[in-house]
Amino acid sequence: MRRTTQTVQNLATQVGAGDHAAFRRLYAAYAPDTLAAVQVGLPDPVQSMHVVRATFCEVWRMCSFDFRCGTAPHDVPEWIAAIASRLAEERRVALELIETSIPPPGGSAFWTELLAAHDQWTCLELATMLDGHDNVRLVT
User: Fold this and answer.
1) Where on the tree of life does the source sit, at the highest rank (predicted)?
2) b/e map of 110-123 (b: 16 or more CB within 10 Å)?
């Protein structure tokens, strides 16, 4: 996909209308760059991929929620990057808390399993949005 402001705005508008094919194109165009950016602050490739998946689930929900998504002149890639940055920081803090600060009710395994269950749900949610076409692979 040739990335132009108009093309990206059109994709965001189509995603807001529930167009799965448009979402796949947006994901294919921006998920690799998003993954690379997330890995700068969260180098673990598995954790980074979880953040990317959560980012694009949020993109889908926010575009679907706000019918103006893609119509207002804003920078969609910058918006995606901002979501990813926030979620990466939340993930980093959560992992740090699990390792150091949270008094676990049954050991840190409780929190780790809770996070893993959330990640599994997000993975299934994204697969549904992409109609099973997750074409981003882990970069190590």
Assistant:
1) Bacteria
2) ebeeebeeebeebb
* Highest mean pLDDT: which range of 6-10, 13-17, 112-116, 122-126: 13-17
Chain-centroid distance, C-alpha 14 = 18
Domains of the chain: which residue ranges? Answer: 5-129
Question: Can you state the angle between helices 76-100 and 45-65, rounded to 10 degrees?
Answer: 130
- Report in angstroms the alpha-carbon separations of 60 from 20, 54, 92: 9, 10, 23
- Three-state SS sequence of 41-61: HCCCHHHHHHHHHHHHHHHHH
Q: What is the pTM of this model?
A: 0.80
- CA neighbours closer than 13 Å in the CB half-sphere of residue 44: 8
**What are the tokens at 126?**
């994204």
Residue 134 pLDDT: 61
Give the number of other CB atoms < 10 A from CB of residue 137.
11
Q: Centre a 10 Å sphere on the Cβ of residue 106 and count the other Cβ atoms it contains.
A: 8
